[in-house]
């Protein structure tokens, strides 16, 4: 992938695009040592606030700061407006698919999605079959990962419909930028994001279960302080003004969920859970789980409790199911997809597997259930040994993998040790799907691959984040 084929969203330094005009002036007027000082101030702020994530697989201190870049990513309102429409459309189609999968399975009977991808999928939860949810919504918080390859070329990289994370970093990135560069904001009309917790709370309230006796009581269920995203759990609960609870704080009696408080048991109506399906209810899923609550699933089925995101939403995260999302849009909404998928090869098909094996050094290969940048091969950057090992895995377990071309991801100027340089980025907007409406806060979490030439933006793989600006008209 040559530098000439890569679209730089700013066009810096010689051909600056209009949305970045004021950023260009700011960078030209700000000496590098001043930017370095501000970067150190940002790190101090993040440490003081306690914005960390955890990596438990590499030894040493598990708590890490996500590197933060000072140069914001900017999108014009017209660019964002088109993206927002596509995101809303995609989220509606994914939720319609999940409702159908757990009810009539019309899309399977119509031959639009192979039965094996659904009914033989490890993320399919037969316990959810026939259960009607408020507004027929399953993935109430969606994180849809987007990449850009040109001025008008956006692709959906993957859909995150289980427990997508990262929104706290979006909010704190903006807060830090406002503290460090208030004059920059005064010169730009940037759409706010601080209202996301209010929008999330409104979404959760709209999902009150059928038997809710009044205003719903909402809690956020966390696995605990050792979870990699615990900071975000605590942050969101605090911002929404709801209780942060662990499994031991809840109890189910006669199919009603209660929270243990100093005043006794208090009914809970909606749980925003950040605990995986397998650990949510030991009576139904893993019996050895100490993170969940016995009976949660039965309270849900009885109409006394809403769990967000719903159990079984992992079926829409599957990277082989992803291939069929454009067809879901057509099937359920009767519309043409506004957002494009990355062309994807299904390695479970012999002819496509042969194609992938012949071009392994050119493609990105991903585990169907992988996440966080793990379980994937970036062919052009892989060693001979890595290619050989992945080839063997593909031959042995072709159903577990998909492959995609190596896209020329867009770059955004980034302040690195050697100065300002282009680095590849993606974008995770957050779509809130309530029983009443779909909400999208302007922007999202921009993740940046800080290593030169790297396409892996995940924080667990050394990536950082940027503030994302949507300019208002």
Automatic annotation (TrEMBL):
Fetch the SUPFAM superfamilies from UniProt: Glutathione synthetase ATP-binding domain-like
Q: Identify the taxonomic lineage of the organism of origin.
A: Bacteria, Pseudomonadati, Pseudomonadota, Gammaproteobacteria, Lysobacterales
Domain spans labelled Circularly permuted ATP-grasp type = 72-449
Entry protein name: Circularly permuted ATP-grasp type 2 domain-containing protein
Q: Which residues form the signal peptide?
A: none
Q: Which InterPro entries match?
A: ATP-dep_Glu-Cys_Ligase-2, CP_ATPgrasp_2, UCP005522
* Species in which this protein is naturally found: Dyella thiooxydans
The record, for Pfam families, names: CP_ATPgrasp_2 (PF14403)
């Amino acid at each position: 992938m040559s530098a000439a084929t890569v679209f730089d969203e700013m066009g810096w330094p010689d051909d600056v695009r209009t949305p970045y005009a004021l950023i260009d002036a700011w960078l030209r007027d700000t000496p590098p040592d001043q930017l370095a000082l501000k970067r150190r101030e940002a790190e101090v702020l993040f440490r003081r606030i306690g914005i960390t994530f955890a990596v438990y697989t590499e030894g040493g201190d598990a708590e890490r700061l996500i590197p933060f870049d000072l140069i914001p990513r900017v999108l014009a309102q017209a660019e964002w407006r088109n993206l927002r429409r596509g995101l809303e459309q995609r989220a509606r189609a994914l939720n319609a698919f999940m409702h159908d999968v757990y009810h009539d399975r019309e899309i399977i009977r119509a031959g639009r999605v192979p039965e094996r991808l659904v009914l033989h999928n490890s993320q399919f939860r037969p316990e959810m079959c026939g259960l009607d949810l408020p507004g027929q919504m399953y993935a109430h918080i969606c994180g849809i990962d987007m990449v850009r390859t040109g001025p008008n070329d956006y692709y959906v990289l993957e859909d995150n419909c289980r427990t997508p994370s990262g929104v706290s970093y979006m909010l704190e990135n903006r807060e830090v930028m406002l503290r460090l560069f208030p004059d920059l904001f005064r010169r730009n009309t940037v759409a706010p994001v601080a209202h996301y917790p209010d929008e999330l709370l409104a979404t959760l309230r709209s999902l009150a279960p059928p038997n809710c006796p009044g205003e719903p009581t909402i809690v956020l269920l966390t696995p605990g302080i050792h979870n990699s995203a615990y900071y975000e759990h605590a942050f969101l609960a605090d911002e929404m003004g709801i209780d942060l609870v662990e499994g031991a704080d809840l109890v189910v009696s006669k199919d009603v969920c209660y929270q243990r408080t100093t005043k006794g048991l208090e009914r809970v109506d909606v749980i925003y859970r950040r605990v995986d399906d397998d650990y949510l209810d030991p009576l139904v899923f893993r019996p050895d789980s100490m993170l969940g609550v016995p009976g949660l699933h039965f309270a849900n089925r009885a109409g006394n409790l809403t769990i967000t995101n719903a159990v079984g939403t992992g079926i829409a995260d599957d990277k082989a199911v992803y291939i069929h999302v454009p067809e879901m849009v057509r099937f359920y909404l009767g519309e043409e997809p506004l957002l494009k998928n990355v062309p994807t090869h299904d390695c479970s098909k012999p002819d496509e597997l042969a194609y992938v094996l012949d071009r392994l050094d050119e493609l990105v290969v991903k585990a169907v259930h992988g996440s966080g940048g793990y379980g994937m091969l970036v062919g052009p950057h892989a060693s001979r040994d890595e290619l050989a090992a992945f080839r063997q895995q593909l031959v042995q377990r072709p159903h577990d993998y998909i492959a995609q071309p190596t896209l020329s991801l867009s770059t955004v100027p980034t302040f690195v040790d050697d100065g300002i340089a282009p680095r590849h980025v993606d974008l995770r907007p957050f779509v809130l799907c309530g029983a009443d409406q779909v909400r999208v806060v302007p922007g999202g979490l921009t993740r940046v691959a800080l290593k030169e030439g790297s396409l892996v933006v995940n924080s667990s793989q050394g990536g950082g984040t940027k503030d994302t600006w949507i300019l208002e008209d």
